[in-house]
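Workshop exercise sheet. Pairs work together: one partner reads the sequence aloud, the other fills in the structure field after running the prediction. Swap roles for the next sheet.
Pair: D.N. / O.F.
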Amino acid sequence: MRLGSLAALAFSVLHVFAQGDQTVLVEPQVAMLPTLADLLTIESSTSIFYSYSRELASISDTLSDSQSVPVTLIAPTNKAVMALARKPHQGPVDSEITITDEELADAQARANVERWVSAHIIPQSPITFDETYPTLLTGKSITFKGDAEDWRNAVIEGDIHIVGKREASNGVLFLVDRAISSD
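Structure field:
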C-alpha cells in the first residue's frame, strides 16, 4: 500500500517537471501504524506468546485486522512464559488427567491455550489505569494500578510490571514481566 502511494507521488512529481508550469497538489500521506499482529511479529521478546495466539484463528484474526474493535493486549515476555510452572497448553494444575486419545489430548491442549491467551486480551482500547477490565476469558478481569501517563510505574494484578508499550492501528500492546493467570 505504501509502495503504491510512493509510486503515485513520484508520478505526480515527474508530471510537474514534464509540464513545467502546471501545479500539482499532493495530499499528505498519513503513516499507518502496524497491527498488533505486526508488532508481535517483530517483537522477538514475545515470540512464544505470539506463537500460542497464532494457533487460534479467531484471536489471530482480531490481532491482524486493523478495522476490528481496538483491543488492549497484555503479552508476557518469553522469559515470563518460560518461568511458568505449567505451560499454557498444559492447563491448570487440577487438570492432571491422563488422556490417551491423541485427538482428545490435542483438543484439550487447544482449549487450554485459548483460555490462557484470552486472559491476556481486553476487548477495549485505550484503557485508563486504576480500573478493572474484563478480558476475553469469561469471568476473568484484570486490574490496573498506576498512572496511565507513565505506564512504567503501573502494575497489573498487583505484581505484574509493564516493561514495554507499543501502539498499533488496532489497539495497544503492553509487554509484561509475568503471565496473567487464567485460573
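Discussion prompt: The first helix runs from residue 2 to 19. What would you look at next?
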